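Narrative of accomplishments. A recurring question from our advisory board has been how the design workflow behaves on a single, concrete structure rather than in aggregate. To address it, we present the structure tokens for one chain from the evaluation set, followed by the sequence designed for it. No filtering or post-editing was applied between the two.
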């Protein structure tokens, strides 16, 4: 029991001056929407937004004029689609999102309140860098289904609580 309390206190100490995005190593401009889905703003454009056709075999850049680029969605919803070879959409590196989900699970296991969550592009500024792009990636790397299904409800609850606290302050 004492060891769990020590671990809990150690986590609280580590995260006291950090945001969840910083802990996960998210690049500048990264944020989560109210559903807990990751976004990265580069030059005012969300590079996690994509379009797809009803066939769902490939995904397109959000501003693509390809014939199949009809329906907007989040890139994570298109796993395991490949990028279109015509409009050649960028595939952002979202490894930090896997790390974020792991952190959420670990902190919730020790009943540690999640640190501040960036909910706008300006809310998370760790460095002046452009998010890494994986130009040769054919398939987008899927977030572990187990981690996603376990962590997302915890993350959504924390986001809702943070929004309520921010509204109460306003």
């Amino acid at each position: 029991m004492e060891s769990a309390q020590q671990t809990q206190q150690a986590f609280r100490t580590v995260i006291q001056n950090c945001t969840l995005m910083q802990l996960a190593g998210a690049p500048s401009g990264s944020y989560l929407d109210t559903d807990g889905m990751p976004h990265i703003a580069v030059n005012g454009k969300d590079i996690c937004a994509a379009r797809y056709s009803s066939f769902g075999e490939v995904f397109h850049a959000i501003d693509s004029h390809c014939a199949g680029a009809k329906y907007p969605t989040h890139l994570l919803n298109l796993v395991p689609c490949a990028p279109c070879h015509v409009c050649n959409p960028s595939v952002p590196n979202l490894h930090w999102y896997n790390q974020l989900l792991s952190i959420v699970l670990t902190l919730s296991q020790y009943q540690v309140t999640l640190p501040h969550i960036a909910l706008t592009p300006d809310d998370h500024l760790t460095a002046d860098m452009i998010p890494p792009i994986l130009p040769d990636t054919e398939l987008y790397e899927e977030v572990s289904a187990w981690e996603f299904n376990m962590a997302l409800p915890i993350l959504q609850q924390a986001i809702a609580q943070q929004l309520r606290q921010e509204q109460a302050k306003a």
